[in-house]
Amino acid sequence: MSETNSQQNINTAVTLLERYAEGKRNFSEANLGNADLQGVDLKGSDFSYADLNEANLNGANLRGCDLSFANLSQANLQDADLRGALLFSADLRQADLKGAKLEKADCDRSTHFPQDFDPAQVGLQIKDG
């Protein structure tokens, strides 16, 4: 039974990086709150519904990642590469997005951004449902 839910057992940075190195990209529902993922390359991964609350993703490569419905509140996304990422209904309320590359990333009106953050100014595309 544990094999069918293997992506739900992702709860440490080490496990995540091992699975990524094995070629796995489905980390939906991963529980990575407070994980230190500074500077890691996770491009093309599925982190939909994942808990990345307070995760350190400073300088991480998250190009093309699916972060829909992910909890990224209070995450450190400074200088992270989120180009082409899916941010539908993601919670980025208190995330640090300083220097983050967000061109061609998609979000919707349910995506929560930090106060005074202007999605259009950084090249985010707001899709209407």
What does this structure look like?
- Helices cover 7% and strands 5% of the residues.
- It is largely without helices or strands.
- It has one domain (1-129): Pectate Lyase C-like (3 Solenoid), CATH 2.160.20.80.
- The chain has a two-stranded parallel sheet with strand order 1-2.
- The longest helix has 9 residues, at 13-21.
- Mean pLDDT is 92; it is low at 1-8.
Per DSSP E runs of 2 or more residues, the count of β-strands stands at 2
Task: Tell me the CATH superfamily.
Answer: E3 ubiquitin-protein ligase SopA
- What shape does the CA trace take? globular
Encode the helix/strand succession as letters.
HEE
Give the end-to-end Cα distance, rounded to a whole number of Å: 36 Å
Can you tell me the residue ranges where pLDDT is under 50 for at least 5 consecutive residues?
A: 1-8
Organism: Komarekiella delphini-convector SJRDD-AB1
InterPro entries: 5peptide_repeat (IPR001646), Pentapeptide-BTB/POZ_domain (IPR051082)
Protein name: Pentapeptide repeat-containing protein
Keywords for this structure?
129 residues; little secondary structure; Pectate Lyase C-like; two-stranded parallel ribbon; 1 helix; globular
Give a nutshell description of this structure.
This is Pentapeptide repeat-containing protein. The chain has one helix and two strands. The chain is largely without helices or strands and 129 residues long.
